Amino acid sequence: MRWLQAGRFRLDLSEPKVMGIVNLTEDSFSGDGLGAQRDRALRQADAFIAAGVDLLDFGAESTRPGAEPVPAERELERLLPVLESLRGAPVPLSVDTMKPEVMREVLRAGADLINDVAGFRLPGAIEAVAASDCALCVMHMKGEPRTMQHSPVYTDVLAEVEDFLEERTAVLQAAGVARERILWDPGFGFGKTLEHNAALFRALPRLAARQPLLVGVSRKTMIGQITGRPVGERLAGSLTAAVLAWVHGAAIVRVHDVAATVDAREILRALGPSSGDATTV
């Protein structure tokens, strides 16, 4: 049985988990950014909890392709009032940030997980989180949000992503971070073409055998490229991808549409492959 140590929680990862996205940005690619509207963010968080979400992920800086950086002060202005209001929530509170100064402050405010698209590479990031008991999601990204989709090239995308995730994990462990605090995210859409994304998705069983995985493909461009649907019409594609990610071994899927994804999980539990079956459909 795999566990994830996440601040106040020790999560059993033997059952598929749903992470709900609460966007505290004004320019989210998915059109659901709430900016600094604390009350709306709290209502969304409460609705997700009522719908059966397992984790909440708060982000105050857009990481969509072409996004410009946001100052740490603005991130904290958006994040801290929400986190402080939700301190003691019945599910882990995750914060999507790459800035060490933001990591330190949100941990003081009650965050249980730090979700870093930069893989804890910025100076001071590891020092900001190592001594805590929060979970850490290490994601692979080629380049940075402003430039990551400018013709990304790999010799072997799976090998490069796998090597990166393992290298960052080794660095974290050397700093005293227990491996049971670490999640891997292959970084779908972060410096990758549809071909790269597809290769990584098919390889999820291999990655999942090495470390618990968080997968985020909800409403993303890859769903639109496959289905031909605009961002507001990608629910069916996103649900299908979420179920396939679980079947392929992902521990957690990060989604915008929590209630629908929870329903999909219940169908998977009732009708899907039993524990130990091959991760294929």
From TrEMBL:
Any matching Pfam family: Pterin_bind
EC number: 2.5.1.15
InterPro entries named in the record: DHP_synth-like (IPR045031), DHP_synth_dom (IPR006390), Dihydropteroate_synth-like_sf (IPR011005), Pterin-binding_dom (IPR000489)
PROSITE patterns xref list: DHPS_2, PTERIN_BINDING
Domain Pterin-binding: start-end pairs: 16-269
Keyword Transferase among record annotations: yes
Functional pathway: Cofactor biosynthesis; tetrahydrofolate biosynthesis; 7,8-dihydrofolate from 2-amino-4-hydroxy-6-hydroxymethyl-7,8-dihydropteridine diphosphate and 4-aminobenzoate: step 1/2
Reaction catalysis annotation: (7,8-dihydropterin-6-yl)methyl diphosphate + 4-aminobenzoate = 7,8-dihydropteroate + diphosphate
NCBIfam families (alphabetical): DHPS (TIGR01496)
Protein name listed in UniProt: dihydropteroate synthase
Annotated source species: Tepidiphilus baoligensis
